[in-house]
Amino acid sequence: MRRIEALEVLAELCGRHPVVVTCAATSRELAAVRDGDNHFYLLDAMGLVGSVATGLALGLDPDRPKVVGIEGDGSLLMNPNVLPTGGYLAPANLLLVLLDNGVYGSTGALPTYSSRVDVEALAAAAGWTTRSTDTADGLRTAFADLLDVDEPAFLHVRIEPGNAPDVAKLLLDPVSLRDRFARWLREDHLAAGRNS
Ligand SMILES: [Mg+2]
């Protein structure tokens, strides 16, 4: 499975979830598949998906759809302390999806440590409920399973190295992205309040 194929599945599954997405190729491929006001692209903020997603999960109503973080292996291994932090603080409404291609895909495909470091075991040791897969069907099944758990959830998705061709750079203004996402969060919660 290529990254963009995994993102096609995640875009389909995440329509009602706040989504925090790692920088560079992952952000622009997700935006090319489907952009949405519920997407918060962390442009140039490598390593911070787990931090932002954990903070959001702690701050949001736990009865609303879970916060989904979409992270890469190079980025997670740049800031792996997000795993003990999330495991310790333990928001029940947090699902971190790791798209692991074994390389820094946006910067020349140099290898990351993920071929020798078991990142799923790291997450499990830190208190996350984990699943792993390398197929689109497995991604759907594991994602659904992890929506039902009451502690931080970690989904390790093995993907092929390589970036999708002919995907435009994501040149949206970060301030506009922040404002758009914050507005979506407010309106989503207001709508949830009217429906409850
Ligand atoms: Mg990678």
TrEMBL record:
Top-level taxon in the UniProt lineage: Bacteria
Pfam family, one: TPP_enzyme_C
Residue ranges of domain Thiamine pyrophosphate enzyme TPP-binding in the record: 42-157
GO molecular function: carboxy-lyase activity; magnesium ion binding; thiamine pyrophosphate binding
Key words of the record: Decarboxylase, Lyase
The name this protein goes by in its record: Thiamine pyrophosphate-dependent enzyme
Organism lineage: Bacteria, Bacillati, Actinomycetota, Actinomycetes, Pseudonocardiales
